[in-house]
Amino acid sequence: MMVTTPGDPADACNNLALRKAARYLSATYDKALASVGLRATQFSILQKLSAHGEMTISTLADMIAMDRTTMASNLKPLAREGLVTVEPSTADRRARIATITPDGVLRMKAALPLWREVQAQFEERFGAEEAAQMRGSLEAVLQTGFTPWAE
Q1: pLDDT tens digit string along 117-126?
Q2: DSSP character for 1?
Q3: Which residues face 56 on adjacent strands?
């Protein structure tokens, strides 16, 4: 374990604090969803596609706060497993459209109770009100005006 000294800039680093918590929670959700063969990010992708229907990779990436290239990489294993399709748009051949398949809906529905359980456990340990405040604060981070994926 790394020992920090008083005044260590890492102690006040917003990025490090957020990434530590994100890795911790991601691993917790990944572990909970492993029995249905999904990782937390894959579950989120399937959930968004199920709720919103087909969409471009760029729109899906924006919705999840991810760059388009990383989203395309995350869709590949889901497409290999037949959980999503990714095809050129008929309106704009440069755009690619992601769509959840019936098997993807079934997998997402199988994962939903596992996700709900870990979500409830986290809120029980952290506090439901605190978790809601955390989500609000993290959503506000996305409104700070940075453009990390602007091309």
Answers
A1: 999 999 999 9
A2: -
A3: 97
Distance set, CA 9 to CA 4, 6, 27, 138 (Å): 9, 9, 26, 22
List Cβ neighbours of 92 (8 Å cut-off, separation of 6 or more). Answer: none
Which of helix, strand or coil describes residue 3?
A: coil
Amino acid identity, residue 87? E
Closest CA to 107 of 84, 135, 75: 84
The answer to whether 102 and 85 have CB atoms below 8 angstroms apart is no
Q: What is the pLDDT of residues 12-33, one digit of tens each?
A: 899 999 999 999 999 999 999 9
With CA atoms as reference, report the closest residue to 43 among 14, 78, 76.
Answer: 78
Can you give the C-alpha Rg of the chain in angstroms?
18
Tokens of residue 58, six digits: 């760029």
